[in-house]
Amino acid sequence: MDDFELRLLPAAEDDLADIWVRAPDRAAVNRADALADQLLRRDPVGNGRLVAEGLYRLTLPPLAYYYAVDTDRRLVEVSVIREVRPSSPP
């Protein structure tokens, strides 16, 4: 099966750049971004969580990606990337 095409909208590109510049651990941002790229290209629906009609979220601390999937065109469009904190153990 062919991978999905992944597009970051300009606002998402700006979000990622801003997070990276401010990050205390830029390597963690790079790792999360590389993993998100793989997961979203391979199976964006199965790897994300539906948060609203047509909007999915993939959380890989320190990043959370919000995106839409067009299965017919095999396209993933990331609209927003937010910084998230890792969950604390109980």
Question: What is the strand and helix layout of this fold?
Answer:
Layout: E1 5-8, H1 10-22, H2 26-42, H3 44-47, E2 49-52, E3 55-60, E4 63-70, E5 75-83
Parallel strand pairs: 1-5
Antiparallel strand pairs: 2-3, 3-4, 4-5
CATH architecture: 2-Layer Sandwich
SSE order: EHHHEEEE
Number of separate domains: 1
Total count of strands: 5
Give a written overview of the molecule.
The protein has a single domain (5-83), classed as YaeB-like fold (2-Layer Sandwich). It has a 5-stranded mixed β-sheet. It has 90 residues and is an alpha+beta fold. It is built from 3 helices and 5 strands, in the order βαααββββ. The protein has helices at residues 10-22, 26-42, 44-47; strands at 5-8, 49-52, 55-60, 63-70, 75-83.
Features:
90 residues, YaeB-like fold, 3 helices, alpha+beta, 5-stranded mixed beta sheet, globular
Give the structure's gist in a few sentences:
The chain has 90 residues and is of the alpha+beta class. 38% of the residues lie in helices and 34% in strands.
